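Human: Can I borrow your eye for a moment on a structure tokenisation matter? Separate attempts, laid side by side, tell us more than any discussion would. Could you pick a protein and write out its sequence and tokenised fold? No explanation is needed for now; the record alone will do.

Assistant:
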Amino acid sequence: MSARADAAYDNAYHHKLRGRLWRALEGTAYDELHDSGEPPGFCMSNPFPPRDMREGDERKLLVASHDEELLANVAADLFDESELNVGSMPFSVEDVRALAPDVGEPGTRGTLETGTGLLVRIPPWQCDEYGIDHPGGETAVYWRPEHTTEPLVRQLEANLDQKHDLFAPEYLPGPSDVDGSLFDGYELLKTFAVPVTVTEGQTMTYVLSKWKLEYTVRDDHHRRHLNLALDVGLGERNSLGLGFVNVAERTRPDETELEGENAFA
């Protein structure tokens, strides 16, 4: 994408960017997903690199989905209508190309990095189990570092289970149906709060976190689960661009050094 004017980077881009992608799907079979309440099966990065821009500066945007036809509809619309305004950031789409990220065959070691903040909420009925103080009522608790990684790991797996039920053939096992964890290690990069417009006129302040997630692909099922995370995102509110993940490093079984696989480069 090319910036059409000087602009400050808009950290509240989420709602506007989501709206532009839904507009690209108007009149297609995916229109009915808009108000279904179910995960829509797509996720996107932020416009990156995330810094103030001058007219003509280049930025990139990644859109991921398990459904190639959905991506094809978005790509076709961006070809036909190249103007892409993300809040106060005006862009023109100069090029659209397909990528095929993959965590690698069994035996591959690597790292996924959350390109955008990860939203994980702990239901009130599970707070006692984790020793988390709950203020009462039905409000979920945002994950924070003092809660330890246990509730985060369990919520991520449960959320990916839900997406597997929606988007994968029912005869295939989901993440919780197999032995072993999704990830070998969790490195917290930072925790931060950001106001996000979830619907027109409603803004919520989410507590988000960014991570490096280490993995070793055990088998074809584990590979499929990790690739599903690449396609539809981890955690909640993926259609707002939260929970977008990317392969940062990958070492195939016959290699000894990590190779860069960062699609943001």
The chain has a mean pLDDT of 91. Residues 85 and 91 are 6 Å apart (CA to CA).
